[in-house]
Amino acid sequence: MSYVDPLTRPWREWYQLEVWRRRRRLQLRHHPLCAMCLARGITTPATVADHIASHGGDWNAFRLGALQSLCKPCHDRGKRLLDLDGCSHEIGDDGWPTDPRHRANAPRGVVGSTPGCATWPGGRTKKFGAGN
Predict the structure, then answer these.
(1) Do 109 and 67 lie in a common domain?
(2) 54 falls in which pLDDT band (50, 70, 90)?
(3) Residue 101 contacts residue 90 (beta carbons within 8 Å)
C-alpha cells in the first residue's frame, strides 16, 4: 500500500486516520464526561472528541485545534446548532433562551442588531414597526 498525503484527502476522511484516533482516545481518557452536560449540572459519559472551533478543512486546525469531550446527543444537536446559528438554543427556567446572542434576546425594535443568532434566516435584518 502506498503513502497517501492527508492533505490531498477530503477532510471527512481525516477522521479515519490513526493520528486522529489516537488523539480522540487521549481526549476521552483525560476528559471522560460531556462538557455541555456538565455545564448544565448533568453527568454524562462523553463519546465524541469535538473540535471547539470548526477546522473547516484546515489540516493544521484539524490536528492542533482545541478539543472538547461531548456525548453524541450534545454533539449532534447542541453543538451543531451552535456552529450553524452562532448561539445556543437552550431555554432557561424562565422560558427564555439563556444565550444573550439568541435573537429573542436582541434589543427591542430591531432583530438582527447583534451577531450570531440574532439575524433572521439568510442574514436579513427585520425592523418592527409601521409598514412591515
Answers:
(1) no
(2) confident
(3) no
Amino acid of residue 30: H
3 confidence band (pLDDT: 50, 70, 90): low
Host domain of residue 44 = 1-85
Domain count, the chain: 2
Residue entry with cell 455545564: 39
**What residues pair up with 68 in beta bridges, in sequence order?**
50
User: Going by C-beta distance under 8 Å and a sequence separation of 6 or more, which residues neighbour residue 7?
Assistant: 59
Based on the fold, state whether residues 53 and 43 are members of the same structural domain. Answer: yes
Work out the mean pLDDT of the chain and round it to a whole number.
77
The verdict on 65 and 92 lying in the same domain is: no
* Whether residue 61 is found in the same domain as residue 32: yes
Q: Are residues 11 and 58 in the same domain?
A: yes
The helix (run of H) or strand (run of E) holding residue 127 is: strand 126-127
Rounded CA-CA distance 26/115 in Å is: 34
**pLDDT score recorded for residue 109:** 62
Burial class (CB in 10 A: 0-12, 13-18, 19+), 22: exposed
